[in-house]
């Protein structure tokens, strides 16, 4: 292996200093940069995914042509907290968001019914693509999950936060369910990225989980909503020994459903455009 292609794996480089080092094209995976100092560093054309950026100070930076997708909380740009501004703009663009911050049991029932309605339209959009080319619902855009993988992940979220966290089932997962990519391998938790269930198979699982949430919410009382989950047992996610406010668990489900639908709509639009361009080229 040449110096230019040297790989560092499972090494401890605490306190190391890199000066005048060219790392163009380098890849960092599961690297801990806690407390690191970056000065005169060029991050042009960098791609950052699944990365925690907390308690970070940036001074004298230039942000141009930057795209950020994530949770913004206490993010100040030139002294202005931009989180509330972004949230307000999202509410303007998507008025349904104001109904997805429920505070009582009735509000959660209304929010879940709204999500089911929104998702029905997205599923029909995916079915139209599948009718053109069945492979499109298995195709990811820009390294993101495919539509089928998104459905599998939402089933995982429901199993984790409703069945495991709220209802106390220590191992509720279906073999097709899919955790987030960077979750460590965990005994008993499925994570098969190679399997390719049909859209109908993925939808059957996803709809089963969605109806289970609706059934739980149908009898939920405000007193139960204000309560705590039982202490979790067994290996899985969330981790054993944890307890949560019931409302927090249900908020996670609503957040997952809304955001992953946004991602799905975004990527379906890209696939539709690509398919239309392919069709136009084929008719020339």
Can you describe what's shown?
Helix content is 43%, strand content 1%. It has 284 residues and is mainly α. It has a two-stranded antiparallel sheet. It is globular, with a radius of gyration of 22 Å. The relative contact order is 0.11. The model has no long low-confidence stretch (mean pLDDT 92).
Structural class: mainly alpha
Gyration radius (Cα, Å) is 22 Å
Largest sheet: 2 strands, antiparallel
How large a portion of the residues is in β-strands, by DSSP E?
under 5%
**Overall form:** globular
User: What would the average pLDDT be, to the nearest integer?
Assistant: 92
Regions with little confidence, pLDDT below 50 for 5+ residues: none
- The order of strands across the largest sheet is 1-2
Secondary structure: helix percent: 40-55%
Give a count of the beta strands, DSSP E runs of length 2 or more. 2
Distance between the termini: 49 Å
**In sequence order, what are the helices and strands, one letter per element?**
EEHHHHHH
Number of DSSP helical runs: 6
SSE diagram, text form:
Layout: E1 76-77, E2 80-81, H1 82-93, H2 105-132, H3 147-166, H4 199-218, H5 222-225, H6 246-282
Antiparallel strand pairs: 1-2
Helix pairs in contact: 2-4, 2-6, 3-4, 3-6
Short description:
By secondary structure, this protein is mainly α.
Features:
284 residues, mainly alpha, 6 helices
């Amino acid at each position: 292996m040449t110096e230019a292609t040297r790989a560092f794996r499972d090494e401890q480089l605490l306190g190391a200093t890199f000066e005048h080092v060219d790392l163009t094209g380098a890849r960092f995976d599961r690297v801990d940069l806690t407390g690191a100092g970056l000065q005169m560093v060029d991050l042009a054309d960098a791609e950052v995914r699944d990365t925690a950026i907390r308690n970070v100070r940036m001074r004298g930076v230039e942000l141009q042509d930057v795209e950020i997708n994530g949770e913004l909380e206490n993010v100040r740009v030139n002294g202005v907290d931009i989180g509330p501004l972004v949230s307000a703009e999202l509410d303007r663009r998507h008025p349904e968001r104001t109904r997805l911050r429920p505070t009582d049991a009735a509000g959660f029932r209304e929010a879940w019914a709204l999500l089911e309605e929104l998702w029905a339209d997205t599923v029909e959009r995916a079915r139209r693509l599948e009718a053109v080319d069945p492979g499109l619902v298995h195709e990811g855009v820009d390294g993101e999950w495919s539509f089928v993988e998104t459905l599998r992940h939402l089933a995982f979220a429901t199993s984790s936060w409703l069945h495991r966290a709220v209802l106390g089932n220590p191992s509720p997962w279906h073999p097709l369910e899919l955790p987030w990519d960077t979750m460590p391998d965990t005994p008993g938790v499925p994570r098969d990225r190679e399997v390719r269930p049909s859209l109908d198979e993925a939808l059957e699982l996803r709809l089963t989980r969605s109806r289970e949430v609706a059934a739980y919410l149908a009898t939920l009382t405000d007193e139960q909503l204000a309560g705590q989950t039982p202490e979790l047992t067994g290996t899985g996610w969330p981790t054993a020994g944890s307890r949560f406010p019931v409302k927090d668990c249900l908020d996670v489900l609503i957040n997952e459903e809304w955001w992953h639908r946004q991602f799905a709509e975004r990527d379906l639009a890209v696939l539709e455009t690509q398919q239309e361009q392919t069709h136009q080229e084929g008719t020339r």
